[in-house]
Write a structure and sequence with these properties.
With 754 residues, the chain is α+β, with helices and mostly antiparallel strands. It is built from eleven helices and 37 strands. Strands 20-21-22-23-24-25-26-27-28-29-30-33-34-35-36-37 form a 16-stranded antiparallel sheet. A four-stranded mixed sheet has the order 1-3-4-2, covered by helices on one side.
Length: 754
């Protein structure tokens, strides 16, 4: 601090000097009016060195100035300021990818326009180093370079990342359990000798923040095995910072294993007569004469709690009481239950829906104000909102307002429901191509979906416009209409179609719905694709000179209890339909089709972000009419089953696997098809909804039986919910393809669920 005060010699003569004027030199960010308030010195006051010193200190406390001093001449008191620079820009280099850099920039608590302060800069450096240590990187160095531009400063944090400390060995003195069991729930584990680089094996990287809790996790493993007296010491870590290797050590006192001597439920007086005690006992999975397991007790408590909460007792309390017999190594388990009062819903508060109207959110919530509380209904409401595909994040929290009432706070974050795509291109087969689509699943926040699609090339032209309302007038009824025209040159035939379909449906429950679709399509087929005239072409021209008119009715049923629209982790999807063609027109057949998807989040059993998926579809066609010359007269080849590509067996070109006509040249599709797929999906970058999946596909298609054309494949897929919609990039491998098969090495799709 530099303080300079110019005072005239007559000040020593004790003569009072009157302040005739006050000026502020170098003051930019603060107005003179505010400066007058801070200084607390007025025109007409006598110059007072004590008050002047207090004023200068008060200015310093504003934290705006590097230097403040005062001068006095000819009755004019002047305060001189040297202001601190403002921060014009902040850069963090070398920290990580774009999302990681954005996150750390937010955490360092520096913003553009802030006044520069060396203490804030040092704090920001500590935040960056601590964040890197939480990631397991130690010895990191952060250097700061400041670029001064007039009255502003550009701060650049140059990050030199440290190294991961690797736990090469872990020791559990006194333990008899296998090390893999002890470390099954630990955040810090010994590195696997040669598979540590794989994401599902232990890398051995030190997670210092979790270290203090690992002994409790290990102790929990013992509690699951019945060792009630087990004690695990706090960890001792010995690290060598020359090579960043470490040894982790624990001291374990296991004690004896306990068996369960008996189980009882103790109810408070209020619960008598409300619940059947035998029904509650049937829900308990812990058994007498088996080894004690704390995890089973937790699950029993959760089951009992959910059951009682579904009856309206939201504030139920369940506590286990353990009666240990150390001599006989037995333990009695008592579940003490206090249900509290029955709770009703006071209000449902919705927030975060910046685009969707409140009614779009509210119609998916199956519990309303005045209803008796049910935890199952709350969870189903969350899942229904996620399944709608309108929201990225959904959370329903409970706000207790009294002993017998609560409010529900529904917090949503709007997702990307619109997709706009346009492109031009040139291909060796299609030549010049142009396509574009506009798709919005939540038009103006009304929940109505609309789609306009155009795709044009030499061999493919598709035009489609559709409108969908999943909840007409917020009722349980849905409706949709599609009008389309298409021209498609398949491998062996031309298809030119025009038509429409209209559908109505109804939600039977929040997870089950039915629908009925009527469609009318006229399709012209020409199989002179290779400038030949096989039998098939002649037959189609003979049977349908003006095209195949198909009038059909399709009832269907759909079940979905998954927990997310794009990336379901748990749940089942199931749909089945029966298409009846022959309500007039030329096509006459019955087509049965069903498909399912099963999802299970493996993180429920292992501490790893893996989703196990199983998908299958099956279909069969029964023609109404007689066969002639190898063709089923009532079934157009455009409505039969084909395999290949995304959605069936990847690794083979789309729709390329099929029975052929008597000439062996034309793919005519099959009457029977079955495909299924097993997938493991790993969360690659959670912040941007990107995952990678490994898959195995097997399918078969045939004219008379299912297994005439069996095919299988395996490969990898990159799945990403991008800003323009969901994208899937597939690198497949066809397993044992036939010499005449059309295989593919890369596949791509947009806009589908995973």
């Amino acid at each position: 601090m530099r303080i300079f005060l110019l005072i005239f010699i007559f000040f020593s003569l004790s003569q009072a000097l009157e302040i005739k004027s006050i000026k502020y030199d170098g003051l930019i960010r603060m107005s003179d009016l505010i400066a007058n308030e801070i200084a607390n010195i007025k025109v007409g006051d006598n110059l007072d060195d004590k008050k002047l010193n207090e004023a200068i200190i008060a200015f310093y406390r504003q934290d705006y100035f590097d230097d403040v001093y005062a001068s006095f001449e000819n009755g004019i008191l002047t305060f001189h300021f040297k202001e601190k620079p403002s921060i014009s820009n902040i850069e963090v280099k070398g920290y990580g990818n774009e999302s990681e850099t954005e996150e750390i920039t937010r955490l360092i608590n520096l913003k553009k326009g802030d006044i520069y302060d060396i203490y804030k800069e040092n704090y920001a450096k500590e935040v960056i180093i601590n964040a890197l240590e939480e990631k397991g990187l130690y010895g990191s160095v952060v250097e700061v370079s400041n670029v001064r531009i007039e009255d502003s400063i550009n701060i650049i944090f140059n990050v030199n990342k440290g190294e991961n400390i690797i736990i090469r060995k872990s020791y559990y003195e006194g333990a008899t359990l296998d090390k893999s069991e002890l470390e099954s729930f630990s955040a810090n584990r010994e590195r696997h000798s040669w598979l540590g680089w794989l994401p599902w094996w232990s890398s051995g990287e030190l997670k210092a923040k979790e270290l203090e809790y690992d002994n409790l996790r290990i102790q929990d493993v013992y509690m699951q095995k019945g060792y009630l007296d087990a004690n695990v010491s706090t960890p001792l870590l010995s690290a060598d910072f020359t090579n960043y290797d470490a040894i982790l050590m624990y001291k374990v006192i296991e004690g004896e294993r306990y068996k369960v001597s008996g189980i009882d439920i103790i109810l408070n007086d209020d619960i008598e007569g409300i619940f059947d005690i035998d029904e509650l006992r049937d829900m308990i999975k812990l058994k007498s004469d088996e080894f004690f397991n704390i995890q089973t007790i937790r699950q029993d408590m959760e089951n009992l709690k959910s059951y009682i909460m579904d009856k309206g007792y939201a504030f139920v309390r369940i506590a286990p009481d353990l009666d240990k017999n150390t001599d006989e190594k037995l333990v009695g388990v008592n579940y003490i239950i206090d249900i509290g009062k029955k709770v009703s819903i006071g209000d449902v508060i919705i927030t975060g829906n910046t685009n969707s109207s409140d009614r779009i959110v509210r119609r998916e919530i199956i519990i309303a104000p005045g209803d008796i509380y049910s935890v199952t209904k709350v969870r189903k409401s969350e899942n229904a909102l996620r399944r709608s595909g309108f929201f990225d994040k959904v959370n329903i929290s409970e706000i207790r307002t009294s002993e017998d009432s609560m409010n529900l706070l529904v917090e949503v974050s709007e997702g990307n429901t619109g997709e706009i795509m346009a492109g031009i291109g040139y291909g060796s087969y299609d030549k010049f191509m142009i396509n574009g689509s506009v798709k919005e699943r939540n038009l103006f926040g009304t929940g109505v979906g609309v789609q306009l699609y155009i795709n044009w090339s030499k061999y493919t032209q598709m035009y489609n416009i559709g409108l969908t309302n999943p909840r007409i007038l917020d009722s349980e009824y849905s409706g949709s209409i599609n009008i389309f025209k298409s021209y498609f040159a398949n491998y062996d035939y031309y298809e030119d179609s025009i038509g429409f379909n209209i559908s109505v449906g109804r939600n039977l429950t929040d997870e089950l719905s039915i629908n009925l679709t009527y469609g009318l399509t006229n399709t012209k087929i020409d199989v002179d694709y290779y400038n030949n005239d096989p039998i098939t072409s002649g037959l189609y021209k003979y049977y349908y000179p003006k095209g195949i008119l198909k009038s059909y009715l399709t009832p269907g049923i759909y079940f979905d209890n998954t927990d997310d629209y794009y990336f379901p982790k748990n749940g089942v999807t199931l749909q089945a339909s029966a298409e009846f063609a022959g309500l007039g027109g030329d096509a006459k057949y019955i087509k049965l089709f069903a498909k399912t998807g099963l999802y299970y989040y493996l993180k429920n059993v292992i501490d790893f972000d893996l989703i196990l998926r199983y998908k299958a579809q099956i279909g069969s066609i029964f023609g109404i009419g007689s066969d002639k010359d190898g063709l089923q007269k009532g079934v157009p080849i455009t409505d039969t089953f084909y395999m290949g590509g995304i959605g069936s067996v990847r690794g083979y070109r789309t729709y390329s696997i099929s029975p052929r006509d008597p000439t062996g040249l034309i793919r005519v599709g099959g009457n029977y098809m079955f495909t299924n797929s097993v997938e493991i999906s790993y969360g690659l970058v959670e912040a941007i909804n990107m995952r990678v999946a490994a898959f195995f596909d097997f399918g078969m298609v045939g004219a008379k039986t299912f297994n005439e054309f069996p095919r299988m494949s395996a490969g990898l897929a990159l799945e990403w919910v991008s800003p323009i919609g969901p994208l899937v990039f597939v690198i497949p491998w066809a397993i044992n393809p036939r010499p005449y098969d059309d295989v593919s090495r890369f596949e791509f799709t947009m806009g589908t669920r995973f």
